[in-house]
Amino acid sequence: MTSHHPAAVIVLAAGEGTRMKSTTPKVLHRIGGRSLLGHALHAARQASPEHLAVVVRHERDRVAEHVAALDPGAVVADQDEVKGTGRACECGLDALPADLEGTVLVTMGDVPLLTGRTLVELTERHEASGAAVTVITAELDDAKSYGRVVRDERGDVVAIMEHKDALAHRAAGDDLAHVVDVREINSGIYAFDAAVLRAALGEVGTDNAQGEKYLTDVIGIARRDGRTVRAHLVEDLWQTEGVNDRVQLAALGKELNRRTVEHWMREGVTVVDPDTTWIDAEVTIGRDTVVRPGTQLLGATTVGEGVVIGPDTTLTDTEVRDGASVVRTQAEAAVIGERATVGPFSYLRPGTVLGAAGKIGGFVETKNARIGDGAKVPHLTYCGDATIGEGANIGAGTIFANYDGVAKHHTTVGRHSFVGSDSVLVAPVEIADGAYVAAGSTIEGRVGPGQIAVARGRQRNVDGWVARRRPGTRTAAAAEEALAQRHTPPTPSPEERP
Ligand code: UD1
Ligand code: CA
């Protein structure tokens, strides 16, 4: 065998995970924007197996649906009421072709930091050595409740003894009493020869401290039949660590993030404060981008080159193109164009598409809005269900009134048009290319090219009002002084302006 592609990977994910204390099955809890099972499937796929099976039981439908959504090529295998990792593995095998031969990898749905590369190495080592079983092991200071690896004088693995069974031997004081002190533990991740695995599982019983069918018993059976069992000791302990409770979930999530952030720094991204930067597993970032403190890049977010992001910015499923700047912003399912600027304090909701060199400024909320190249929405605006042409300018405080209480309607602002400050655009409405809206207008009807629409109350100045209605106030005194020394006529009212 030269290709080192395993015949199958079986992912065990039937357990309940009671210590999570959750209505969500353990393997569906997430770190780095992906479920624990999603991480396991991702690693499994990187080993390029011919077949991939996931064994389910607890919350079977939810887990199966999740598998189908993430990896439609994976086979879902149901575990029956017989308990234990051995039975789980057997159910996985039963869901695969009966004539399956070659290497079968077994992994766990709750070990999210295991990499595809480690599975490839495991497969290569296993196939090169000719062993019937190769188990990934790790050396821990505290072996806790893990299964202990028992080796012979040649270093081959003789057996794996479960913690509870090792405790029983210590209590009995028999010749296996020392096993509980072994620091090398079983990660629960293995490469098996398919035929050996199938035959041995048929023999595994439930006569042990937990009354379960242990996958680990396959090792003793293989040894009894004169087969070789090897250990593949990994240095990187995080890769073998499983999630049992929410404390471990957070610890593994943090470590995964540390690895992801380090990866992007090595790819040429400046991360000012790795400790306050969170980057999901599927995010991509271009070179010379600077990520400032307090930034979260989540989901399927993609960031181009030479971008500045943060501080204090959360982007979910958002595309940021080269040279853009996104400061103190929350965005979801948005596109931010090349050299565009966003923030500070901007809220981009789904369907926001900002063109090249466009601007969304402070205290602006956008939703389902296409804002053209070079167009600007700089201050204090709600812009929902809109198309804004290139080079248009939306004045401070403009509201796109898109909702009439029943339905949402669209607003169009044409190319290089100018909407004055504090306007309300009552949708559906269209402002043509090259048009103006006077500040403070409420626009309900179409504005044609080259027109200005003025839709507001006219200004009316009433002489002497302050003296009559606010006598004796400081305002009245100021008016009196100003009137006494006036050389110039009063400012013309707006409609008299040229
Ligand atoms: C298992 C190993 C132990 C190893 C440890 C590593 C056995 C008997 N023991 O112990 O040597 O050190 O993993 O974490 O294999 N599962 C099923 N169906 C079941 C039981 C478990 O699919 O009936 C799945 C779980 O969803 C989980 C994995 O198998 O993903 C491990 O199960 P768990 O019960 O945690 O095994 P441990 O007792 O920790
Ligand atoms: Ca476990």
TrEMBL record:
Primary role: Catalyzes the last two sequential reactions in the de novo biosynthetic pathway for UDP-N-acetylglucosamine (UDP-GlcNAc). The C-terminal domain catalyzes the transfer of acetyl group from acetyl coenzyme A to glucosamine-1-phosphate (GlcN-1-P) to produce N-acetylglucosamine-1-phosphate (GlcNAc-1-P), which is converted into UDP-GlcNAc by the transfer of uridine 5-monophosphate (from uridine 5-triphosphate), a reaction catalyzed by the N-terminal domain.
Residues binding Mg(2+): 110, 244
Keyword Nucleotide-binding: no
Region annotation Disordered: where it falls in the sequence: 469-498
UniProt subcellular location: Cytoplasm
Pfam families tied to this protein: Hexapep, NTP_transf_3
Sequence similarity: In the C-terminal section; belongs to the transferase hexapeptide repeat family. In the N-terminal section; belongs to the N-acetylglucosamine-1-phosphate uridyltransferase family.
Ranges of compositional bias, category Low complexity: 473-486
Name of this chain's protein: Bifunctional protein GlmU
Region N-acetyltransferase, residue ranges: 268-498
Enzyme class, first EC level, given as a word: transferase
Biased composition (Pro residues): 489-498
GO terms of molecular function: glucosamine-1-phosphate N-acetyltransferase activity; magnesium ion binding; UDP-N-acetylglucosamine diphosphorylase activity
Cofactor(s), names only, from the UniProt record: Mg(2+)
Active site annotation, chain numbering: 379 (proton acceptor)
Record text on subunit structure and interactions: Homotrimer.
Cofactor notes: Binds 1 Mg(2+) ion per subunit.
Reactions the enzyme catalyzes: N-acetyl-alpha-D-glucosamine 1-phosphate + UTP + H(+) = UDP-N-acetyl-alpha-D-glucosamine + diphosphate; alpha-D-glucosamine 1-phosphate + acetyl-CoA = N-acetyl-alpha-D-glucosamine 1-phosphate + CoA + H(+)
InterPro entries: Bifunctional_GlmU, GlmU-like, GlmU_C_LbH, Hexapep, Hexapep_transf_CS, MobA-like_NTP_Trfase, Nucleotide-diphossugar_trans, Trimer_LpxA-like_sf
Stored HAMAP family: GlmU
Residues binding acetyl-CoA: 396, 402-403, 421, 439, 456
Region (Pyrophosphorylase) location: 1-246
Residues covered by region (Linker): 247-267
Residues noted as binding UDP-N-acetyl-alpha-D-glucosamine in the record, renumbered to the chain: 12-15, 26, 79, 84-85, 147, 162, 186, 244, 349, 367, 382, 393
Pathway: Bacterial outer membrane biogenesis; LPS lipid A biosynthesis; Nucleotide-sugar biosynthesis; UDP-N-acetyl-alpha-D-glucosamine biosynthesis; N-acetyl-alpha-D-glucosamine 1-phosphate from alpha-D-glucosamine 6-phosphate (route II): step 2/2; Nucleotide-sugar biosynthesis; UDP-N-acetyl-alpha-D-glucosamine biosynthesis; UDP-N-acetyl-alpha-D-glucosamine from N-acetyl-alpha-D-glucosamine 1-phosphate: step 1/1
